[in-house]
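[job 0417] fold request received: Malonyl CoA decarboxylase-like protein
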Amino acid sequence: MSIVKSLSERLQLKHAEKVIAPAEIQAFQHEWGKAEIETKLQIIESLDSIPEDASRRFLQLMTRQPNGVSTLIAIRSTLFKAKLSLPLATGLTETITANLDSGLQVQRMRKDSPRHIIDLFSSSDRVHPIASECRMIRRLEEVDRRVFYLAHFQNPAHPLIVVNVALTQGVASSIQKILDDDEKESGPDSAIFYSISSLEPGLRGIDLGHRLITSATAEMQNDVSLTNVTQFSSLSPVPGFRRWILKMMDSDQSALGNVKKIFEIANILSVETIGAENYSDFRELVASLDPQLLPKFSNSLPKLLFKYLFAEKGPDNSTVCPVCNFHVRNGAELWRLNFSANTAQYGMSESLSMMVNYRYYTDKMWQNSPAENRKDVFTWTVDINGRALMRLDDEKLERLGVDHPNHRYELLNEILKQVIFSLNSRVINELYSEAAIPRTVL
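[job 0417] inference complete; emitting structure tokens
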């Protein structure tokens, strides 16, 4: 805190770097590193109290020091933990983002990596927690597994974000086979991104996932031992799917009516609802999470998930599934819905066993990403008017769980109508604009 005060006047100079020695910034790092939480909050308040230009110069000077970016990430983490909303936070986020953009390196984790990196990795996976040392070592197997991480060049031994990859024959549809099967795949042709986790709370809200996936893909494409691997895909959870079903079931006083409502895919699919004799079994499945009840709903659950991903929207008009938003924003395509893909307790609790493959076509992902042509990346929606639907055809619909040919035909007709409506609306808007016709005329 006293160091910030001693620097404050000089930080207001345009060329502060010429009058502030690196040792003074490093003294701040030392003070921060040994401080208790109360002292750290006082240091943050001191930084926030100086003029904005001065605080930004301080942040820039910090990035030039050994492990300086790590110090800034730690300060940002403390802000989150204390739930502080201060002007300093904006400068922190912008400075960290700019330095990560140019300073990240992708590295592969191996069985002989330093033990502290292995220990960080073993506790990092919040999607599919690593159950034991044996399961952790399996993820690092040379033959059919890969783990990649991003680190800043100032601190290459400290992973910031980690992705787990399984090398499989064909695009995998079951997480149990990836996590629990000890038999090694021979001749894999697919790389499956099945878990990605940030190791730094201070990076919350700073998207490094796209950078890691594209970097890991490039590493595997350049690996001479993986020349047959040409397919890249995720195997992703659907964390809010069961919660959405429960909400639908609770939205009406009539339990039977609610379940019927769930199974009506009106305006998207013209499908028959499940017979009344199965309603009680479905309620039991949702409540008990018993995988033995799944087979009866092998057709219905994919159709429900289709509705959830393509029709349900959040307040910002984006799809309600954050995982779907993440992959589609990264340029992936929703490729397949997988039934009975995760029958573990947490998989049943999240999504009644359903998982999704999002395919990364390396020759198209940059064009697929909405960021390529749109500024409203974070409100992009996978809906009936979305580009993802416009790329659907009969074969893709069948993979997505639409089994009956008549249902696929009806859905493709509906998509065509929506596309025509969208085009007509755009033409009408252009005509209004060009002719300056008052809209009240029509």
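[job 0417] notes: The longest strand covers residues 190-198. The first helix runs from residue 2 to 11.
[job 0417] exit 0
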